[in-house]
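Hey L., structure's done. Input below.
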Amino acid sequence: MKFKNKNEFRTYCKKRLKSVMNKNKIKRDFLAREKILDYIDDVKAKNILLYISLESEIDTKKLLLQLRKSRKQTIFVPFMEGVSFKMVKYRLPLYIKKFNIKEPRNSFAISKKIDLAIVPVLGVDGAFRRVGFGKGMYDRFFESLGYKPKIAFVELTDCFTSLHVGESHDIQADIYITPYKTKIVRRFTKRVR
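Output:
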């Protein structure tokens, strides 16, 4: 399919997500969770930024519990501040904020560097750039971070276009995980002679 721009692709991805949202959701969540855990093991991530899921996203409740209890990773979650967010350590209780997003109380502790960020998406373009809901919060957060951790995009269904509809400020992933497909960015390096 040809898309003229990112907004057209976003609209397509929203329709696609809506059509699968309630079909085999438990199975989709399980399959994606297993792939995410495998990737965490592969990259040996210890400090992880992980979103607290909305209904239309891969459910992270069990993943959060699993990572905290049995695997001993330190988990950070987004805490909204204005047009961006900061990382805070995941802890209960959670409170509902803007956009129906749940988050813990604010924390003023200085966060460690993260090894891996697991980021929800609506779609991904040919340059592995994120197409989200259009608020730009993740883009501003990663721009302010000062370093680039590994980034895994996750989604309930595969909404990928080989076209480059993203913009230069859109964050790029190292891997794109859906319940039934995984795409990895192949980074080529120059051979030193």
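The two ends are 42 Å apart (CA to CA). The first helix runs from residue 6 to 20.

-- N.
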